[in-house]
Amino acid sequence: MSSKITIIGAGSVGSTIAYNLSNNDLASEIVLIDINKEKVEGEVMDIVQGTSFRNPISIVAGDYEDAKDSDIVIITSGIARKPGQTRIELTQTNVNILKSITPQIVKEAPNALYIIVSNPVDIMTYVFTKISGLPENQIIGSGTLLDTARLRFGLSEHFEVAQKNIHAYVFGEHGDTSFVPWSCADVSGASLDDYAEMMRHLGKEPKPLDKAGMEEYVHKSGGIVIAKKGATFYAVSVAVCKLCGMLLSAYDSIATVSSVMHGEYGIEDVAISTLTLVGPNGVQGKVPLKLTDEEVAKLQKSANSLKEVISQIEL
């Protein structure tokens, strides 16, 4: 596959995405851009020296003009939350960074599909949609793709079944107000309760599923990793590379990514994650999965929490 992917930001997440891309066949060209020239050059040198074990690929430490003709641009720039810093302060700082990046990259790659990874990702996706001037279908926030992966891992461990057989999702913001629409969760077409009963007939004894505990696991996983090793970047980079694969495929896929809502579930003018049809033409629209009234209320609450933050920042 011949495609060009540009990554803005060579921190832990951006450089790990570049490394993962260098080990698969999604891209023939990778451009890594960062304000810290020494850092980005070092990252590229380290990555490119391992590519002798694969088919030839171009990886460069570049500037914005090197992003010309990119098929995908991934934005990871931003800073982590500092001790004592409020969520609003962090959001404004990262929004300001995005506002400085956007005109420079959009000028060079106006036809690319953009994946927003920078946190808070839903707000950054919304801001980029508002300020970039690009059609909305070209803009995809990584959203709860990682949260969904964490959920499926947790359920896989619980039921002792391969993650590929689990269809369960995390909706809402990539944050504390996200939730699992359990009414739609299944294992190979069977509801979680039905699957547990089926396993008992096969001589297995799955433990009762603590749904609240599983949601807490999803919510707190990132914080636990950060407390133990300082940052999270492996799992999110795999999720983003998976999303790149969806965007470069021949057919559309369905994923929990963040995009601006236009009345779905009674929600307007905010970017949030629900099931979304994505593919070579970017975002094709939200998939109208039937939720319970309680689940719709949770989604609306999550959207309102994001709107409250947006109302307090300067776009």
UniProtKB/TrEMBL annotation:
Active site: H174
UniProt pathway annotation: Fermentation; pyruvate fermentation to lactate; (S)-lactate from pyruvate: step 1/1
GO CC term, one of those recorded: cytoplasm
Annotated Lactate/malate dehydrogenase N-terminal domain residues: 4-141
EC number, UniProt record: 1.1.1.27
Any one GO BP annotation for this protein: lactate metabolic process
Activation and inhibition: Allosterically activated by fructose 1,6-bisphosphate (FBP).
List of residues binding substrate: R81, R87, N119, P120, V121, D122, D147, T148, A149, R150, T232
The protein's name: L-lactate dehydrogenase
Organism: Fusicatenibacter faecihominis
